[in-house]
Design goal:
Layout: H1 2-74, H2 77-99, H3 105-124, E1 127-130, E2 142-148, E3 157-162, E4 164-167, E5 170-173, E6 175-180
Parallel strand pairs: 2-6
Antiparallel strand pairs: 1-4, 3-6, 4-5
């Protein structure tokens, strides 16, 4: 009988123990759920930071590559701009020599050869002559320095006073032109 009573007492305590353990289990489950949601928030935040960092680095890489390419393409700009007056002098010398009646043909040919070699070298570095004569005035490439009466060529370039040049599609000197009106 004592055993039955002891067993009954244990049974009576067991449901209480189950309630306590259920409550502990629920509390632990809530803590685990809170911990999981906290971890998920931290994971989402870390993932967001990671994605932003990757995007920022990719933008940095692309920007520096663009800047490097621009620098390489325009690094010669100052040197080539300095050589443009020399090209102009060659052109004027050739015009003067061809206009003079006493000029030696071999002398003209020599100056022309030097001019063509220099111009070919500069073209190899990305320099291009802006073709202006007979074209419509385009302020992106031409600088109008005067007007000339030309009824059949209104708004067109009648004469080029000074040649213009581009370096890798960037204007480094505008063509100075006279426009028909």
């Amino acid at each position: 009988m004592e055993e039955q009573q002891k067993h009954t007492t244990d049974d009576a305590q067991q449901p209480l123990g189950n309630n306590a353990s259920e409550q502990e289990f629920l509390e632990q489950n809530d803590k685990t759920a809170n911990c999981e949601s906290s971890l998920e928030e931290k994971l989402t935040e870390a993932n967001d930071k990671y994605l932003r960092l990757v995007a920022e680095f990719d933008n940095f890489r692309k920007r520096t590559a663009r800047e490097r390419l621009t620098l390489l393409l325009t690094a010669n700009e100052e040197v080539l701009s300095g050589l443009l007056p020399i090209l102009d002098d060659f052109e004027r010398a050739l015009e003067a020599m061809q206009g003079a009646a006493f000029s030696e043909p071999s002398l003209i040919e020599g100056v022309k050869l030097i001019y063509e070699k220099l111009f070919a070298y500069l073209q190899g570095r990305g320099l291009k002559l802006i073709d202006a004569r007979g074209k419509d005035l385009d302020t992106d490439f031409h600088e109008a320095v005067g007007k000339m009466p030309a009824p059949n060529q209104k708004g067109k370039v009648v004469e080029v006073v000074q040649n213009g040049y581009t370096l890798n599609d960037k204007v480094i000197r505008y063509a100075k032109v006279i426009v028909g009106e």
